[in-house]
Amino acid sequence: MGAGGFIGSHLLEAILERTQWRIFAVDLDFHKVQQHLQNHRIEFLCEDLEEPSVLKKISSYPIVIQLAAICTPSRYNTETQKVIESNFLTPAALAKACADSGSWLLYFSTSEVYGKTSSEALLLEEDQSDFVYGSIHASRWSYAIAKQLSERYIASLVHLSWTILRPFNFIGPRMDFVSGLDGEGIPRVLASFCGALVKNEAMKLVDGGKAQRSFTSIHDAIRFIFLVLEKPHLSKQEVFNIGNPDNEISIRELSFLMQKIHAEITHKNPKEYKSPIEVSGTNYYGKGYEDSLRRVPSIQKSQKLLGYLPTEPLEKTLKESILWFIDHYTPIIENQETQR
Ligand code: UGA
Fold first, then answer.
1. Is the CB of 213 inside a 6 Å radius of any atom of ligand 1?
2. How far is 204 from 272, CA to CA, in rounded Å?
3. Residue nearest to atom 21 of ligand 1 (CA)
4. Which residue minimizes the CA distance to atom 15 of ligand 1?
5. What gap in Å lies between CA 203 and CA 196, rounded to an integer?
6. Which atom of ligand 1 is nearest to the CA of 147?
7. Which of 107, 114, 143, 273 is an active site residue?
8. Cα(233) to centroid of ligand 1, in Å?
9. Bridge partner residues of 183 (DSSP)
10. 340 residues of the chain, pLDDT tens digit each
11. What distance in angstroms lies between residue 188's CA and the mean position of ligand 1's atoms?
12. Is 221 near ligand 1, meaning CB less than 6 Å away?
């Protein structure tokens, strides 16, 4: 579920390449996987997960991978009820259906469950770290709390086989959207900065860009998912971070690094770029926004149990992503300009 999204589209391709499995792909939008729409190994269903008949059919498969979620922070404080419902009620109903049918549920939670981490935060460990969330008015955390409750609900179902995965800022081609071109609103930071680069606009640095993130290449993430799938005896009833602690960077540094890589690719004069603009989180995202200041995964558990070692450095993934955004969006921008 969520097969048409950023992670789903990469996973779908990897499953087609590496296995002979048949796939039942459910989502509300398949434009990121449109080149596979005729593939006879995939059954596509464009339907809402709230439909009980859809849940029943999904849970008739031996492995269920739940990727569907509202996962852009700009929506957490503006569509709070929907965010909670889609990240708790729907996964809970799915988990129940999987428990009844005997399917193995791979549930994509989030690194946000660790909550409002400070700039001093240590490595975050799956089975040790505490979760801290803001007040009820800090609606930014509604998503994290809904995901955390789903995790606890899943783990409470005695007959369910489950694995909980906590992604740490996956990045790569096809991530999110570019506002005004194929979506509206604020995408996550990689797409937001790539969008600014291809549109020659200023990047926006929320609260000075002081927050830090550890970015994970989508290719390392997909390798991780396969390790989980290949080792059910080690991964069932376990929670794993999926991340790369070596790729930590502040958002301010990220903006300069992305601009440098873009200039190298396009041979654009660095003086032609607009300087990043500092914006407050509340002005940019609205009331109720708060941030996690440092979020670095411990990957000790996944190294020990699954043999996972991320290999993709940040600069390489940024270059691949920026190239993809240029190739994909330049024709759309040119087309818009000729229509004006
Ligand atoms: C988000 C989601 O909440 C999680 O579900 C998801 O797991 C996580 O991304 C992820 O991609 O794994 P967050 O890390 O806050 O959490 O995502 P971004 O929107 O990419 O923001 C990262 C940082 O960049 C934040 O400090 C944000 O304020 C900043 N930012 C974002 C900017 O400075 N400018 C922008 O234009 C966008």
1. yes
2. 17
3. 189
4. 73
5. 6
6. 5
7. 143
8. 33
9. 179
10. 889 999 999 999 999 999 999 999 999 999 999 999 999 999 999 998 878 889 999 999 999 999 998 889 999 999 999 999 999 999 999 999 999 999 999 999 999 999 999 999 999 999 999 999 989 999 999 999 999 999 999 999 999 999 999 999 999 999 999 999 999 999 999 999 999 999 999 999 999 999 999 999 999 999 999 999 999 999 999 999 999 999 999 999 999 999 999 999 999 998 899 999 999 999 999 999 999 999 999 999 999 999 999 999 999 999 999 999 999 999 999 898 888 7
11. 5
12. no
Token digits for 37? Answer: 């729409």
Q: Which of 169, 203, 214, 277 to mutate to test the pocket of ligand 1 (most atoms within 8 A of CB)?
A: 169
Active site residue 329: no
CA angle 281, 73, 31 (to 5 degrees): 135
Q: Are 31 and 176 in contact (CB under 8 A)?
A: no
Neighbours of 4 (CB within 10 A): 22
What's the predicted TM-score (pTM) here?
0.97
Structure tokens given for 35: 């080149």
CA of 267 to the centre of ligand 1 (A): 28
Does 244 contact ligand 1 (Cβ within 6 A)? no
Amino acid at 240: F
- Ligand 1 close to Cβ of residue 169 (< 6 A): yes
For ligand 1, atom 14: residue with the closest CA? 169
Are the beta carbons of 134 and 290 closer than 8 angstroms? Answer: yes
Judge contact between 142 and 84, C-beta under 8 A.
yes
Using N-to-C axis directions, what is the helix angle for 251-266 and 314-339, rounded to 10°? Answer: 70
Rounded (5°) CA angle 129-1-84: 55
Task: Identify whether the C-beta of residue 124 lies closer than 8 Å to the C-beta of residue 297.
Answer: yes
Q: What is the pLDDT of residue 117?
A: 97
